[in-house]
Design brief:
The structure holds 2 protein chains of 2 kinds. Chain A is mostly beta strands. Chain A is 0% helix and 51% strand. In chain A, the strands form 2 sheets. In chain A, strands 2, 4, 5, 6, 9, 10 and 11 form a 7-stranded mixed β-sheet that branches. A 4-stranded antiparallel β-sheet of chain A has the order 1-3-8-7, with no helix packed on it. In chain A, a hairpin with a 6-residue loop joins strand 9 and strand 10. Chain B is 0% helix and 44% strand. Chain B is built from no helices and 9 strands. Chain B is globular. The chains are: A mainly beta, B mainly beta. At the A-B interface, strand 5 and strand 10 of A face strand 3, strand 7 and strand 8 of B.
Chain lengths: 119, 110
């Protein structure tokens, strides 16, 4: 079955960096677009970034553009999110999510990893 | 990239039906048929219940249905059950490889 397992979250000071990983299994990773979506404590979902199946297209929410970088390693079936210049408002659970094949919607989600930006 | 507009809360009694609205613009909901809905129980990851406006993934009961009219999408849950109590989020493709979510609606089963 499809599995998405995020890791790399933790407590980080404002201005510092953090790299999240999402290990996947149960599907042909190299054939699917992948997303990062976040959820601040007690708040709603916010789309963060997407990467095409082959890495040819990357797109970001305005709130993270220029600070976050999405990438993937299809040989390792793993998705990444490099987060630089972190701010308090980046505090959230970060979910890795798979896009429906040939579609523009998300079907499967990981369990999320919590990132807390605090001094 | 403004969030789609959903009611903060709705409620209904077991067996009843409820409808949750999701209002966007011509740049998202009214521009594409890529509207999806997610159910999220507390402390859990979201679960896809509707995609392509009105399609149900395998395993999602037909009590859940979706529709769209112009810039407003709707999720209807019929025959309410206790386990339907959760937060529901709509999501739309917004062009230029961007997506937007609604603010979420808390469903209470009375």
């Amino acid at each position: 079955q499809v599995q998405l397992v995020e890791s790399g979250g933790g407590v980080v000071q404002p201005g510092r960096s953090l790299r999240l990983s999402c290990a996947t299994s149960g599907f042909t990773f190299s054939s699917y677009g992948m997303h990062w979506v976040r959820q601040a404590p007690g708040k709603g979902l916010e789309w963060v970034a997407v990467i095409w199946y082959d890495g040819s297209i990357k797109s970001y929410a305005d709130s993270v553009k220029g600070r976050f970088t999405i990438s993937r390693d299809n040989s390792k079936n793993t998705l990444y999110l490099q987060m630089n210049s972190l701010r308090a408002e980046d505090t959230a659970v970060y979910y890795c999510a798979r896009e429906i094949y040939g579609d523009y919607e998300i079907d499967y989600w990981g369990q999320g990893t919590l990132v807390t930006v605090s001094s | 990239q403004s969030a789609l507009t959903q009611p903060r809360s709705v409620s209904g009694s077991p067996g009843q039906s409820v409808t949750i609205s999701c209002t966007g613009t011509s740049s998202d909901i009214d521009g594409y048929n890529y509207v999806s809905w997610y159910q999220q129980h507390p402390g859990k990851a979201p679960k896809l219940i509707i995609f392509d406006v009105s399609q149900r993934p395998s395993g999602v009961p037909d009590r859940f249905s979706g529709s769209k009219s112009a810039n407003t999408a709707s999720l209807t849950i019929s025959g309410l059950q206790a386990d339907d109590e959760a937060a529901y989020y709509c999501c739309s493709y917004a062009g230029s490889y961007t997506w937007v979510f609604g603010g979420g609606t808390k469903l209470t089963v009375l």
